[in-house]
Amino acid sequence: MVERAIAGLPTNQRITITMRDIEDLSSAHTSSVLGISEGNQRVLLHRARTRVRSVLEAYFSDVTETP
Questions:
Q1: What global pTM score does this model have?
Q2: CATH architecture of 2-65
Q3: How many CA within 13 A on the CB side of residue 12?
């Protein structure tokens, strides 16, 4: 489900969350690869995490409600 949620993200959000949370790369490296500021990278990461969290909350809410 996490992979599916990440796959549904906009490109830069998907790359950012993958580099930071899966590959455990630094903020500076991620920003450099994407050609963006570290501040913009933080915004992308926050938005990506928020979207993934939302998808997972909806999924687990549906799973726990199913008899």
A1: 0.88
A2: Orthogonal Bundle (1.10)
A3: 15
| Nearest one of 66, 59, 64, 61 to 4, comparing CA atoms | 59
Domain boundaries, the chain: 2-65
Distances (CA, A) of 59 to 2, 8, 52, 53, 56: 10, 14, 11, 10, 5
Burial 40-61 (b: 16+ CB within 10 A, else e): ebeebbebbeebbeebeeeeee
What the block records as the tokens of 59 is 């999924």
pLDDT at 62: 80
Alpha-carbon span 19 to 16, nearest angstrom? 5
pLDDT in tens, 16-63: 999 999 999 999 999 999 999 999 999 999 999 999 999 999 999 987
Q: How far apart are CA 42 and CA 16, in angstroms?
A: 9
